[in-house]
Amino acid sequence: MSAPQWVRDLKPSGPQGSELLEAERAKSAVNVSSLSSFLFTNEGLARKHRVLKILQSEKVFDKSQNYFAGRIDRFETALARAKRLRQIAVKHGWNNDDRLAANDLISEPGPYGLHESMFLITLRDQGTPEQHEMFLKKAEQYKIIGCYAQTELGHGSNVRGLETTATWNPDDKTFTIHSPHLTASKWWIGSLGRTANYAVVMAQLIIGGKPYGPHPFVVHIRDLKTHEPLENIYVGDIGPKFGYNTMDNGYLLFNHVKVPHISMLAKFSSVDLKTNQYKRPASASLIYGTLTWVRSTIVMQSGGVLARGVTIATRYAAVRRQFQDRDAQEWERGENQVLNYTTVQIRLLPLLATTFALHFTGKAMMALYGANQKKMSQDVGKMGGPQRGPGPEETHSGSDLLADLHATSCGLKSLASYTAVEGLEVCRRACGGHGYSSFSGIGSWYADYLPTATWEGDNYMLTQQVARYLLKAARGVLAGSREPSNDTEYILTTFLSRQDTGAAFDILGNDSDLVAAFAWRSAFLTFEALKHRDEQKKAWNDLLVDFYRLSRAHSQYMVVKNFYETLQSSDNGLDSETLAVMHKLFRLYALHTLESEASEFYTSAAVTVRQIQLARTTAVMKLLAEIRPHAVRLVDAWDFPDWQLDSSLGRFDGKVYEDMFYRASELNPLNRVTVDPYPDSAVLFKRNEAGPIKPKL
What residues does FAD bind to (predicted)? Predict the structure, then answer.
């Protein structure tokens, strides 16, 4: 039942949340609109608000019951939203950027998620023109709905260990897709459980009894009219998960299913119809291009993912008041804003700085991915497609860029997703008890984002790829066979030339020296790992912890470098005061990271013990005090509409407690149930007016 009028008339005690946030914004001169434009461009901001207006006008996107619905109801609503979103996109002539903006605003995984990302990307980037005509055009028109089936019940990150097979049949020019073991079952595949009727299946190619490694095959799995599984295909949903329950992650098994020759995506490798010979790719890494795209995208999104939690926690910390300042004058002794406590600032403000650091790094990551795709297209055109002869270990045009992209995407995916996952939990805890409520908007966001630390390469396993790349680069630098051709080789060469004279970086007074200290630490750990591996002949497994630390160090260097270089650009459009605050955020991120990893910086001789002490006790604390007045305006610059955040605690107007009470009392369907509390009664509910939660169509 609705709350009586006397309840509705109640107000929070003390200063109102709206007054507190208004006062916070008045403290700072940070130009929110120009900073937002710097982050997203005016075009991007206009697109978001145009799309938002359309979504808010559609009943199916109403979020009022999101936190109350069960698994099946949530999936049904998500499917209804996905279908309507596609209809709206066609009606308004949306491009891909419009669709991505809509997905960000809706903020939940949808049943078309893998179709619109990995399925389309794989078809586009790894298919031939003939395959584009046969598969891609239909997929783009949603005539077929697909997914990307790589992970198996027994194999995740180890792609080379996949058990699903694709055996070439020279007699009828087909492939036989087969699941020889239970652990060969495709598992965790998004959009597969109930939605997809096609799948790009990663399977071990076998020709004449010889294995050639995993390759992508387009496989029809459900009837296009009845949507029932095809013969000898067993497919379904894997069940409820920790989060991500609006997505139908599925399993998939094959029993000797034949597919035509055109099913093998053949832009980079293929089987010759006439000779039955395998045409190998110029680089084995080209087969995994979709994974590189996904990892790059994860890095790009990580800043915004974390910024949601930081926005909610910062606004609530400015509204929430607890205890009194022990040093305040008697007449000042009201309850203190939680954001004034340095134990809250040290948790939230470095994370605020991190959001910008990750965002700028994500932009650089996507630029590197774009450059690599352009280079690969040029090289494939010159070479006329898949090659016979050169092995994957041999060099080819663009190989350095591809290796750099692969290592960078692995290292930054690991660091960025780890940082966002850990940071969201810090934000939730910083909200106190209310952070545990679904209405905070952090818990469900955290649960949905959490698998990012595992999928597309476990965050610990991926660091081996970075270490392998760095060790190879270090060997090349030591051999002195050529001048440095990229940033990694440059910092390794610089380290070798200066290691005898020492570093002597002024990390407290010079920002470029601060970046150089991170580069020095990365180079030092690289050569230390190389010494252990090549000179001391340590086993690879014995070095995995060292490799993890090396990858983390190198990735942190790249984040610091990208943050610094972004602020150095002359066309950032920021006024001097806003830019000054951004430089303070850069120093806070770099120095807080440095003092958190102090032992490695000291061991590498990048800094002294005294510098570490000053960074921790003086510089970081001073930066917290200087950034504190700007905190609310800085999170405002991320431009999250309340509709997107769906959070009581993170409301722009500060009406935190009013919104929490409204959701609990007015929207909560459990309050429309009257129970029989006595154990000797067989009656459970005396009255149940809650009803099923269905999508509003």
Answer: 151, 190
C-beta of residue 202 within 8 angstroms of C-beta of residue 164: yes
Is 151 assigned a ligand-binding role in the annotation? Answer: yes
- Out of 45-49, 126-130, 389-393, 614-618, pick the least confident: 389-393
Q: What is the C-alpha to C-alpha distance for residues 432 and 88, in angstroms, rounded to an integer?
A: 40
Backbone angles phi, psi at 78, to 5 degrees: -65, -40
Three-class SS of residue 163? coil
Pair type for strands 165-169 and 198-207: parallel
**Residues 243-269 pLDDT 10s:** 999 999 999 999 999 999 999 999 989
Alpha-carbon span 145 to 519, nearest angstrom? 45
Q: Do 333 and 321 touch, CB atoms closer than 8 A?
A: no
Do 40 and 211 form a contact (C-beta atoms < 8 A)?
Answer: no
The pLDDT value recorded for residue 501 is 74
Distance in angstroms (rounded) separating the CA atoms of residues 69 and 125? 38
d(CA 199, CA 217): 8
- Cα–Cα distance measured from residue 163 to residue 180, given in angstroms and rounded to the nearest whole number: 7
- Angle formed at CA 309 by CA 430 and CA 597, multiple of 5 degrees: 70
Q: Determine whether 483 is an active site residue.
A: no
Q: What single letter denotes the amino acid at residue 571? A: D
- What are the backbone angles phi and psi of residue 337, rounded to the nearest 5°? -60, 135
Alpha-carbon distance values, 10 to 5, 145, 665 (Å) = 9, 51, 13
Residue 146 to residue 142: CA distance in whole angstroms: 9
Is 314 known to sit in a ligand binding site?
no
pLDDT tens for 585-642 read 999 999 999 999 999 999 999 999 999 999 999 999 999 999 999 999 999 999 999 9
8 Å CB contact between 107 and 644: yes
Closest CA to 93 of 61, 125, 50: 50
- Residue 282, pLDDT > 80, answer no
Predicted confidence (pLDDT) at residue 397 exceeds the cutoff of 50: no
- Half-sphere exposure of 237 toward its Cβ, with a 13 Å CA cutoff? 15
**CA pseudo-torsion sign 316, 317, 319, 324:** positive
- DSSP of 259-288, one letter per residue? EEGGGB--SS-EE-TTT--EEB-SSGGGGG
688, 697 contact by CB (below 8 A): no
